[in-house]
Structures are given as structure tokens and as C-alpha cells.
């Protein structure tokens, strides 16, 4: 919904309710209302599920407002896009990731902290640490240049290591690890670029310079010291 607000096709709750009526979610709700928590009586009273759609839009708008992606006026029902919302839409960033960045971003951060913040992105929520990977990951921790403070049991440590392995052009042996590294690196460029854009919007020059350098490192697969 944030992308539609940024585009200008959805400007208020009424627009959003209409837009939701064109989605696959709405069709599924009409066909199997019980699966989506809608009672039969509610369907009889409101066959087009307008009230249900309004409730969903209100919940979604409240989440986006809490993440500072939009400004939601609950009285008028209008939406106003923010700079953060534009960044999230442009780089396909989830609102959970934006909320994480809001909580952890600060004006002065080390490379260790930036890489840790990257690894906390919700895009990597499905990454798990498998038992057979731990030995190889522990070897890689010794070879990557930026220290990883988290335990190897922590999936964020794995994401952190895999990104550094990618930049360092190190070779992995496990097929599962290689697959996960591809998954991480597919999102790495846009997430780093999004971090850079957010920092620019906040006017933090030193951190902007650092995040821009990291963007280049990911793109070129080369550390700035090389």
C-alpha cells in the first residue's frame, strides 16, 4: 500500500478501500471468508466487505504511520507520503525493516554496527543456521575483515558473515551456504543503498560517506582498503 501512496494513486482511506477491491486478497476473502476471519453474518450484512476492507486499511495505515512511512490523519482519513516512505517504496523495503533501521540508526556508527544493522533486516528473517554449516561459518569468521560479535547460533551472524564473504570473494564449500549467500547478496545492494538514502535524508554527512563506501564495496565486491 505504501507504494500506491507514493505513486499518488491512493491518497486516503476511501481510495485505499477501492484499491483493495482490485487485489487478489479481496477475491480470496470473497471466496473463503472464514479463512480470513470473516463471519458468515458479516458477509450477509456486508457482501462487498467494505467494513472489513476499511478495518484492514486502517490497520495497515497505522503500521505505516508508526514506521514514519506515511502521515496518517485518522480524522480525515488522508495519507501523506514521507521521504522515508519514498525510500522504502523505491528500494522495496518492508515496513519491519524500516522500523528496525529507525530504532538502531544513529549519527555515528562503526562498520561493525552498520553490518550488524544490515543483518537485522526483516528480508533475512527466513535465514537459519544449520548444524552442518557451523564449522565452515566459524572458519569464515576468522577470515572476514570486520569482526562479528554475535554467536554463530544467531542467524544475523550468518547473514553478516555471508555478506563479507561475498565482498571478499571467498569460496564456500557447502551448497546450502552458497544458496543462502546468493539470497543475501540479491538484497544487499538495494538495502545498503536504502540505508545511504535514509542517512542522506537525515543530514548525517560522516555516516553518509561511510554507507556510500559500503554500497560501492558491495557493487564491486572489493573492500576500500584493497
From TrEMBL:
Pfam families associated with the record: Sec63, WHD_SNRNP200
Domain SEC63: 81-226
SUPFAM superfamilies the UniProt entry points to: Sec63 N-terminal domain-like, Winged helix' DNA-binding domain
Keyword line: ATP-binding, Helicase, Hydrolase, Nucleotide-binding
Cellular component GO terms held in the UniProt record: nucleus
Keyword Nucleotide-binding: yes
Gene3D superfamilies, A to Z: Sec63 N-terminal domain-like domain (1.10.3380.10), Winged helix-like DNA-binding domain superfamily/Winged helix DNA-binding domain (1.10.10.10)
Classification via InterPro entries: Hel308_SKI2-like, Sec63-dom, WH-like_DNA-bd_sf, WH_DNA-bd_sf, WH_MER3
GO molecular function: ATP binding; helicase activity; hydrolase activity
Record's protein name: SEC63 domain-containing protein
Source organism per UniProt: Paramoeba aestuarina
Amino acid at each position: 500500500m505504501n507504494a500506491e501512496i507514493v505513486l499518488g494513486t491512493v491518497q486516503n482511506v476511501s481510495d485505499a478501500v477501492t484499491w483493495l477491491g482490485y487485489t487478489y486478497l479481496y477475491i480470496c476473502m470473497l471466496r473463503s471468508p472464514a479463512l480470513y476471519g470473516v463471519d458468515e453474518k458479516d458477509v450477509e450484512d456486508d457482501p462487498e466487505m467494505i467494513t472489513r476492507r476499511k478495518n484492514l486499511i486502517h490497520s495497515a495505515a497505522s503500521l505505516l504511520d508508526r514506521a514514519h512511512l506515511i502521515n496518517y490523519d485518522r480524522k480525515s482519513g488522508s495519507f501523506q507520503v514521507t521521504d522515508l516512505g519514498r525510500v522504502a517504496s523505491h528500494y522495496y523495503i518492508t515496513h519491519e525493516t524500516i522500523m528496525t533501521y529507525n530504532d538502531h540508526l544513529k549519527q555515528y556508527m562503526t562498520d561493525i554496527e552498520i553490518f550488524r544493522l544490515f543483518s537485522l533486516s526483516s528480508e533475512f528473517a527466513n535465514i537459519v543456521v544449520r548444524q552442518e554449516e557451523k564449522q565452515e561459518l566459524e572458519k569464515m569468521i576468522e577470515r572476514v575483515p570486520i569482526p562479528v560479535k554475535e554467536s554463530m547460533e544467531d542467524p544475523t551472524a550468518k547473514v553478516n558473515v555471508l555478506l563479507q564473504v561475498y565482498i571478499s570473494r571467498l569460496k564456500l564449500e557447502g551448497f546450502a551456504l552458497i544458496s543462502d549467500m546468493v539470497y543475501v547478496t540479491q538484497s544487499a545492494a538495494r538495502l545498503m543503498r536504502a540505508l545511504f538514502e535514509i542517512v542522506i535524508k537525515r543530514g548525517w554527512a560522516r555516516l553518509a560517506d561511510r554507507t556510500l563506501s559500503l554500497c560501492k564495496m558491495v557493487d564491486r565486491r572489493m573492500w576500500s582498503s584493497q
